[in-house]
Amino acid sequence: MVVVTIIFGTIYGVVQQDQRLGADSPQLEMAQNVRSKLEQGVSLPNAVPAEPVQVASSLSPFVIVYGKDGKVMAYNGQLGIAPPTLPEGVLDNASPTKTHRLTWQPTDTTRIAAVITQTNDGKYYVLSGRNLVEVERIENRTLLLCLFGWVISVGVLSGAFLLLQTKSLDR
Question: Which residues, listed in sequence order, are joined to residue 130 by a DSSP beta bridge?
Fold first, then answer.
């Protein structure tokens, strides 16, 4: 039973991590593209996508550009009518050579997969994120499937064990 538990636990852990890390792919691309535009001298309004994204309800990725002082300079991601507030100190973990990945929860019901990178000149931080609601729905389904597989496997093994026990008592 322990081996079955370890196998199904490992399967779930690997699949869940793959799903969660894969959730960052669109944001990585978007953050790098905006960063590249800013480094090429494109103006903020032209570097950031124009279409507003409601981060609490949309599955679309969004961008928020911060100045080196941490103030919002441009954005298309909105929570209501303003960009969501980033927790203090988060920008400190990004640099021109290191992209920072985080799960950010700006409200009780909104979780965001976000990446942050900094321009080479240190002038801007570029955050790109997207709502995790769909990824988390898939993760929950994966958990249920693994639990179902575990229950079936334990049931079959228990049945086989009982059958062997019964046969050995008949002898």
Answer: 113
